[in-house]
């Protein structure tokens, strides 16, 4: 490898400018903002869980303005139908022809607000567009704009009238991020900004520049030992007895899929890229383990009865799987 420095110094500057513009509007939420940028660079999708009013919508909308991208928000409700998402065919009685009306999924940044409020048939309408980046309407395939990011939110405090997300769809989200309340100091700044003059966000990059950043991010080197670490972490969720974790086997009905391994590797690559390196280190991956794995584990009734959640089981696995030596440390 030629150098341990950033492969493109302009890329680091551009990303700093993007984050600076977003933080002119969004106060705090550094963990959430970092995960959004990781998902954008790694071309993954984000599932966000948090109570209302924590700037989830504002973050994605501001990011779209900063990147000169299109932003659309869909409020999921029980009466929503798949055509409201992907589009439909419309008959014109004057010409006697059908025309295609594309839905709101044709955008760069899509916010699926309270995704668990809609029934399974609507949730499954997102499956093809999230995985294939395309939509099929009346046998005709339409590509969504590139880059494309779906950020879905769900409310953890109101369960009445909600529909659990199918496992197949949950697995298509690269990460599940938990957003917490701001601190008192941050909330004071929020109140001052909201009640004062609104901040004007400047567009500092284009979607084509973001596509170039995504391409450069894929060039970040991930050592085979780090890839093996990701494989062992994910494998331990499926067969914990092989890793001297037989005591948690009864708490796991199903483990994580290979998408989790890919998400860990791509996430570590994106985080290393954001931190100014063209190679990934173990700490780039370790901070993402909870976000990548927590929504992919299916817990047993024993775990629910004992009050265990996915994060507690993941912590046990992380403590047991040895972290590889830092590659390229010298």
UniProtKB/TrEMBL annotation:
Entry-linked Pfam families: AAA_3 (PF07726), AAA_lid_2 (PF17863)
Matches recorded under InterPro entries: ATPase_AAA-3, CbbQ/NirQ/NorQ/GpvN, ChlI/MoxR_AAA_lid, P-loop_NTPase
Entry keywords, A to Z: ATP-binding, Nucleotide-binding
One MF term in the entry's GO annotations: ATP hydrolysis activity
RNA-binding is among the record's keywords: no
Keyword Electron transport: no
Location of the ATPase AAA-3 domain: 45-175
Domain ChlI/MoxR AAA lid: 249-316
Similarity comment: Belongs to the MoxR family.
Protein name per UniProt: AAA family ATPase
Organism phylogeny: Bacteria, Pseudomonadati, Pseudomonadota, Betaproteobacteria, Burkholderiales
């Amino acid at each position: 490898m030629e150098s341990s420095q950033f492969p493109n110094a302009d890329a680091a500057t551009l990303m700093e400018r993007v984050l600076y513009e977003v933080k002119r509007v969004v106060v705090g939420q550094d963990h959430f903002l970092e995960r959004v940028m990781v998902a954008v660079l790694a071309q993954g999708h984000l599932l966000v869980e948090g109570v209302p009013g924590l700037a989830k919508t504002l973050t994605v909308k501001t990011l779209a303005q900063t990147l000169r991208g299109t932003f659309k928000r869909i409020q999921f409700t029980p009466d929503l139908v798949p055509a409201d998402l992907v589009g439909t065919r419309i008959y014109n009685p004057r010409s006697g022809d059908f025309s295609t009306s594309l839905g709101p999924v044709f955008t760069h940044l899509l916010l699926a607000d309270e995704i668990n409020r809609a029934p399974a048939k609507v949730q499954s309408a997102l499956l093809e567009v999230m995985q294939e980046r395309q939509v099929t309407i009346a046998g005709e395939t339409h590509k969504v704009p590139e880059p494309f990011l779906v950020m879905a939110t769900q409310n953890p405090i109101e369960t009445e009238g909600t529909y659990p997300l199918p496992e197949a769809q949950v697995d298509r989200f690269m990460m599940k991020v938990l957003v917490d309340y701001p601190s008192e100091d941050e909330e004071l700044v929020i109140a001052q900004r909201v009640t004062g003059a609104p901040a004007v966000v400047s567009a500092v990059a284009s979607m084509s520049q973001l596509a170039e950043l995504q391409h450069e991010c894929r060039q970040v080197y991930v050592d085979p030992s780090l890839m093996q670490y990701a494989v062992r972490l994910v494998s331990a969720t499926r067969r914990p007895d092989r890793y001297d974790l037989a005591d948690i086997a009864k708490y796991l009905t199903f483990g994580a899929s290979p998408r989790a391994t890919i998400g860990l590797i791509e996430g570590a690559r994106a985080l290393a890229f954001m931190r100014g390196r063209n190679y990934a280190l173990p700490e780039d991956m370790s901070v993402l383990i909870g976000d990548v794995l927590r929504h992919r584990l299916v817990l047993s009734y024993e775990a629910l009865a004992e009050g265990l959640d996915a994060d507690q089981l993941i912590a046990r696995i992380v403590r047991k799987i040895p972290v590889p030596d830092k590659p390229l440390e010298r």
